[in-house]
Specification:
The chain is α/β, with parallel strands linked by helices and 456 residues long. The protein contains 12 helices and 18 strands. This is Acetyl-CoA carboxylase carboxyltransferase subunit.
Amino acid sequence: MTALDTTLDPRDPAYLEGRGSTLQWLAALEAALDEARAGGGEKWVTRHHARGKLLPRERIEMLLDQDSPFLELSPVAARGSEFPVGASVVTGIGAVEGVECVVIANDPTVAGGAVNPYTAEKIRRAARIASENRLPLVNLVESSGEAAPAGSIARELSRLTADRVPTVCVVFGTTSGDAAYLPALSDYTIVVRGHAKVLTIHPQRSGVEVRATPVVPVGPPGPADQLAEDERDGLRLARQCVRRFNWRKQGPPPRTTRPRDPRYDAEALLSLAAAGPSRFDAREVLARILDDSDFDEFKPGQGSVLVAGWGELHGYPVGVLASPGIWLPPAESRKAVHFLQLANATATPVLFLRHPGEIKKSDDTDVRHDAPLVHAVAKSTVPHLVLTIGPEHAGPPDRADRPRFQFSWPRPSAEPAAADDGVIDPRDTRTVLGLCLSAVHSAAVAGAEHVGVFRP
């Protein structure tokens, strides 16, 4: 492999200015995160604690393995809307008894954990991540779900069952509406004694009146597999369920068991986050996120606008396609198509580094040149990850085609893109992408069994 070099000078005034801008954007992001963590506010948080109950992030912390990371997804969803920041639910990926799981936890301090359109979409996205990446799903439920579209959440749970991905549901309190079906649709159900109550809502023909049928679990047998004495006991039982999955990853393990850190300081990524398309160099980013800053560039003498190549990230092989925000000329499109073909032939996940910038079309640019690339992306079966870098402007269409994960760096637009799984601190990029690569290898990587890297 070839070690990347860097030309960034931390004393450059442009470097310092870009760093300052990014830190301002991060401060705004942190304020939004604080708002989401505050839930329904001090009054409702205090009342919740007074009842001997835990907050959603406290439940998650007790569920996960001690000192293990938690990759929270879309933490500031619904920001800028009429609904509370965070969409009254916490979703993310963490390790339970050594098994990477998707975790969904309602926030009952926000209008009783009521489900709104943002909540439903956030839960659907989490369930889709679980299904696509073959990650067990743990639901920590306490929600009044009347606002959810009928069957929306239940549909995603049914897909997980069809894909033989195990699901666990812990009911902590009153649960109604669409969320009331979660215990019945989960493989393992745990309810907390004295607190859990499930209310199924049946609309009448008039569409106005509703009939609520309470189901109060008193102990197995019944709607619950296990009865917990309190919330902590419920989380202990959930961990016990996961331990009994006998779960194994189907994808190959990291190729390098003890990967080296990048040779360059991640602090410089703060400056790169504010760089415009003319100053954007994907190699500067890669030098700060790839193992040992090693990168084998693919066809460096052809299609120079597009940077493509191979590296490793936390020991996992990864291909990279990076371009600024312009329409790709024919040479770049052909280069990208060839690269994607090789990535699929070698069962290597692909990271798309996108710098939207501004649309610029050269004289030899024709949208018809994009057709082979669009087809190549659509036919690609390896996992795709997307990282959007730099200020957002009207850019070319996203060519990643339903990526497994999609994150962005902070930018001066106030709200994150709707498709983002989260806006992240640029300095955390290597860690976030490493967690994502580990997650996608929970499922078999398409084609791996044919290229000699699949290890059952």
